[in-house]
Design brief:
Layout (H helix, E strand, L loop, with lengths): L6 H14 L8 H14 L14 H30 L15 H18 L6 E5 L6 H10 L4 E6 L2 H11 L5 H4 E5 L14 E4 L7 H14 L5 E6 L19 E7 L8 E7 L4 H7 L3 E4 L7 E4 L9 E3 L5
Parallel strand pairs: 1-2, 1-4, 2-3, 4-5
Antiparallel strand pairs: 5-7, 6-7, 6-10, 8-9
Helix pairs in contact: 1-2, 1-3, 3-6, 4-5
Amino acid sequence: MACQDNLVVKQIMDLYNQISNLESLKPSKNVDTLFGQLVSTCLPTDTNIDVKKIHDEKVKDMRSHLIKLCGEAEGYLEQHFSKIIGSFEDNPLNHLHIFPYYNNYLKLSKLEFDLLAQHTSHVPSKIAFIGSGPMPLTSIVLAKFHLPNTTIHNFDIDSQANTLASNIVSRDPDLSKRMVFHTTDVLNATEGLDQYDVVFLAALVGMDKESKVKAIEHLEKHMAPGAVLMLRSAHGLRAFLYPIVDSCDLKGFEVLTIYHPSDDVVNSVVIARKLGGSSEARSSQIGRCVVMPCNCSKVHAIMNNRGMKKGLIEEFSAIE
């Protein structure tokens, strides 16, 4: 694929050159403008570009570095707004809308909850979120709007991130009791991971293929059989912003669905179940539930005995 000859890829490379020459990736007018232009360039889904088929080494190296730059900038952005939101004297949760991408998190979390509901028979009592960061919006949105009786344990390697995050929920009488924060590297977390019904792995945990797979392998080793793993991936041009999680990366899991949004929600959603649980329960899922692509705020399911692919939905069986 002659990627450098593609106009969109040229635009992305130009933005990458500008971003990589910035003195700082902390929020500023210039940083916000450049990353805004980058996201807008990568959002369109009507493209035949498959980054997994790119052979141009210059483009591949650029993409790898750009993903890391995006992750660094996102971390700075969350830290910046976590400090602002946490500074309000009343309940900081009343001010979440200040965060620029709050509405995107509302859509993404609703999508993830709806997909999860399609593949679980009970409401999870405990959830782990790996890589929650200084602005744990997914955990907050899930706990506040979708899982009112669930305890969410948030794991992050950065103690400052956890301090900022816990401050946001500390003055809320409900979430202060149901949001727990742990400062640890997920690769050092062994005991206790088998206590969670569902484990979320954040997009920014493992910014390259090797480290992402390493984290997944660790979770597979220590999660309970039958527990659900929720991951975030990317598709098409959006894979210039975030790493891709392939079905082949999830050895030891039954990959249930990979959902590629077509609106302003950037991340794809991957849902998988760890093998080793009830074989009857597992076989009842394979090839039956197909989630139709539609507005992210509402997910419909149909029964399909042939396990057909529908639009931006991918269905899989177990990866041994």
